[in-house]
Amino acid sequence: MSTSSVDRPLQPGDRAPNIVLDAISREGKIALDDFRGRSPLLIGLFRGLHCAFCRRNVAAMAQLRPALGEKGVECLAVVNTPVERARLYFRYHPTPDLLAASDPERASHRAFGLREVGMDKVMGLRIHLPGELPEPMDPMAMDEFLNKKEGYEITEADQQMMASAKELLVGQFLIDRGGIVRWSFTEGLEDGPDITFKTPNPEELMSAASQVAH
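Below the sequence we write its predicted structure tokens.
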């Protein structure tokens, strides 16, 4: 795969890189070039499945996939989880028809310009999820609480992914048939120490999908 990196998140008008990853939802590889000339693609670049918020992002993408599919847009969820661990998770938490790929090396994040954040800064955050958390928590406490609540068991493969001194931000990019980014959503820390983790606005995403479908 390409291991090149850019110093900022890709924006509408930028050319998306080709990346080649191990498929989770089937055998073999998935390459972004497979979609060029064939269909637009929404790619979501998430942290490992040990991240409870990222599991929610994957589930939200799976829920939107039928509506995006009606517009001819394919979906691909990329997680920083070793492929065998990821396949085990999706075996018990199926997401029908959602393509998923494994990228434990985080090369796709770097290729799309998603930056690394030091754990000292990450741990300074307090995540507010009304109805899911009893109080605002730092990200590690949030994951521990939600993993226990959901019965997600941390494996050695998960621990290896969690051992990094830095955390990657996540993002989603809508790419047209020609390989050009037409819409993007990237995680940011600009809301200060007390934040609510966010996902893309579905209406905004569907509007962008309507544009690339033509």
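The longest helix spans residues 52-70.
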